[in-house]
Design goal:
The chain is an alpha+beta fold and 561 residues long. The protein contains 13 helices and 35 strands. Strand 15 and strand 16 form a beta hairpin. Helix 7 packs antiparallel against helix 9. The longest helix has 17 residues. The two termini are 51 Å apart. The N terminus is likely disordered.
Length: 561
Amino acid sequence: QVERGRLCWAPVGLSPDRGAGVLSAGFFSLLLAAMASGGTSSVESADIIRLMLQFCKENGLHRTLQALQEESRVSLNTVDSLDGLMGDINHGRWDLVLQAASYLSLPERILQDLYVQIVLELAEMQERETAQHLLRETSPLIAMKQDSPERFLRVEALLKKNYFDPRDAYDGQGKEKRRSDIAQAVSKHVQVAPPSRLLALVGQAMKWQQHAGILPPNTRIDVFRGVAADAVEEVEQYPTMVGKTVKFGEKSHPECATFSPDGQYCVSGSVDGFVEVWDYQTAMLRKDLSYQEEGNFMMHDKAVIGIAFSKDSELLATGGQDGHLKVWRVASGQCVRRYEKAHSEGITFISWSKDSSQILTASFDFTARAHGVKSGKTLKEYRGHTSYVNTAVYTRDGNKVITASSDGNVIVWDAKTTEQLNTITPPPPPHLSSTVQYAINSAFLAPTPPGYAGDSDDAQIFVCMRTNTLLLMNMQGQVMKSYSSGRRDKGDFVAMTPSPKGEWLYAVAEDHKLYCFSSASGALEQTLKVAEKEVIGLVHHPSRNVLASYSSDGTMSFLKA
């Protein structure tokens, strides 16, 4: 419906003639997105409906078109070619003219002139029965009977005559002159629109989004979801090879990296302060982001050592060695929020709340803190560790915070009150002393099955200590399963990440190898050398069997199944 220039769409399906699908609210949302993507500041709602009407017309959805015209009270009123329409009128191709006229909104007088001309020419061809039907059954001539009864009766009388006199019927003008006058009158009220305007606009919008980095180039796009078709999840498999590798400058190396939740971006933060967006398939900079193409980059004054995307993949939070926190809009490279002293020392890890309203940071200053995205202020502080805090994450319900520290402890906090609810000290493997504290590199929530509705008390966490054993623990501190490299020499783990569905647990050790464990059985299924020097970290693509490992040798490698 159109109310005061605004389009109010009720998501009611309109059944097409040929089973070609229903025009849904999703279709309409796509159209609005396409128009907005083109940079249009204001779009008439009637124009949007006309685009939909043209799509229906071109795809034979005639009942859908009629229903939409009646409900919205908007007519298509366009033709592909004005010369073509005028030519059809001038040559008396009335079947084509009537078909075109059914989509036009013409003044009543012009419609009546058109239909009267058709009736008279049918009479001239001795098609009196068809002429009588048009005179009595078509809306313009029924209206003429009410508005101009004398003209209606004159046409009716002409049809009843046994012979047809063109001079009398056409008022002495001649048939061709009458056709020309009607064609000229119609042309003043008809707009010309190129064919397939909806598809053209969607195509332009997709190109613009690819140019802006919102959609990846040269890939098949799921138009309704607005993501790359390759964002569809794969069956999880462990990597078997090192694919493409990014090589940083001689005096640079990546300190952190992450994939966006929609799978489009891989972003690294480097020791030289650069934040760079990569194409994980080619290991090349994303030059479709105009700011990177121009040589401008997201940056910190000091090394970038923490990084994380918001849940919608639009915002990127980065943390510096100087304790500064920044929030960027990745599509434009614009810094939209700064926290000059989020921490007194470096930010080691970043994560977002479920609704992306808060950013959780861990730091070398022994604390974790929550920061408001809208307010730009630090809201909470979780203080209780006696050494560096290496990771900090929210539970899925957002009620608790889990932190892991070099002091050898995992602490579970009340997210709102910052109260310590439980302190977990993971046990070392049997061959190590239980009186020594072993730094915990990371603690991450174990993925849960789809549709799982348990609360945070039922959550399980993967724990990576600086030993040769990873642990799966519950929130009460019980060890549920362990995963060992089997090596006492250079077998200690330095980084860990689970696969998105939790079927695999990956970790890199001091020997520069990736260890691939079955989460369910604990069995070591595969090892793969991924670097020549110390591996700093490891991240997993959200839907593809791709991992990124980054190393002090100045490389970031993409590992593939």
